[in-house]
Please model this.
Amino acid sequence: MINPAYRGKNEKGIGRKDEKIRFVGWYCCDGGSVCNQVYGSDTNLDPYGHVDAKRQPMIRLNFGGFQIAAIQPNTDTWDGGVADSTEVIIPKLEASYRLVLDNAFLDFQGGYQTYEITDTATKISKNVDSYILAVGGQIKFDSFYLGADFWFGQNTGPYNYNCAADDDPTFDGSTFVENDSLGYALVGGMKLNETFSFELGYGYTEAELDQAGGNKDAADSYYVQSTVTLAPGVFFVPEIGVIDNKKDEDGIEESEILYYGIKWQINF
Model:
């Protein structure tokens, strides 16, 4: 989702950072809470409950803490070997608002996308409607901070949402079945001193087809890490965590990974 925290960052386009309208080449769509999981090239719990609608070209309007954007839509097909065609009428639409308090902030975010899919064999057409609603935020107490995200939506796979669970609907050429999904993330940390800081986080997501007898496909992840700063812009991050893909919608047990390692980074 579009997020005021990233205004003027990770952008390329036309105009200055303080302009009201931006023609953005791509944008870092992210949740309200701060999450620093470094596994998998900085996963940040994104597929496991953290709010993340991925990067897409957009035109965005900013005013105050409110943002609204028209975004390049994403279209998926589910054909089982039959070639389907799609038609887009309107762009994907997203909006966000950040409420800033003394030592905290709250982000409220939402998005909607629709397009038509047609089975070229049966000539049957269906509308693929997707939406996302999310809330996230963070609060600080001196050297401690706590953050959380929660989101839910429908057909978030075609929306191009970052979700580890199978969040695609199904279309067999005649019957279209919606998919409902949700996720949440909890993160806490503290800065011990200028050298050492610590963080732990947990994220969970699930998705389920909206039909009788449907099973949930779920996944979660949790981690503990410490950031060790050797000099300004020079640090390393030892981290240990778990990626658990649980059971899929067919009840089949999927992979569970215990990982550990160290990331190091130098900022120039």
Notes: The helical segments are 39-42. The first helix runs from residue 39 to 42. The first strand starts at residue 13 and ends at 14. DSSP finds one helix and 16 strands in the chain.
